[in-house]
Amino acid sequence: MAQFQYADGYFPVPAALPVKNTGLVAITEGTGLLLDSTNTISNTASVGVLAPTASGGVVGSMGVADSAIAVGGQGAAIVMGFKWMTASGTVTAGETVMLDDTTAKLGWVKTITGSGAEVFGKAYSTATNGNQVLIFVNPIGENA
After folding, report:
1. Cα 38 from Cα 126, distance rounded (Å)
2. Is 80 helix (H, G, I), strand (E, B) or coil?
3. Using an 8 Å Cβ cutoff, are 37 and 67 in contact?
4. Is 81 a residue whose pLDDT tops 60?
């Protein structure tokens, strides 16, 4: 299995999927992505993705941008694996996280509180608001 060097050791290379930004805004590296259900993958087109919008919800969380993706541009989404993302509020190692749809924090990760949230992954480090946190991306759907 392929690996990449990471601080004091090696981790498996994350699973990535080719994607197309079908939204109206450019997507920055490390932003959580939503599946664009009107632009699904086919044998001739990459799956469409969108950045979360303010108070638009995060249903359909599918991965994180591995690099910046211009509007209409092609890129890659990590759909399972480790990626540094930005914490919304304090995120503590071991906590389950979801994407944020708060203005100025779109596509960041925050701790899940309560039930019914869209699970995005698990934190492997601790960070305060606006700082980088290591996330194991594994968007598995609704938290019980």
Report:
1. 36
2. strand
3. no
4. yes
Q: What is the pTM of this model?
A: 0.86
- Enumerate long-range contacts of 15-18, CB under 8 Å, 24 or more apart: 15/78, 15/79, 15/80, 15/81, 16/66, 16/76, 16/77, 16/78, 16/79, 16/81, 17/41, 17/46, 17/47, 17/63, 17/76, 17/77, 17/79, 18/46, 18/47, 18/74, 18/75, 18/76
The per-residue pLDDT for range 21-34, each reduced to its tens digit, is 999 999 999 999 99
Name the more confident of 141 and 27: 27
| DSSP assignment letter at 72 | T
- The residues near 65 (Cβ < 8 Å, ≥ 6 apart) are 27, 28, 29, 30, 31, 33, 49, 75, 76, 77
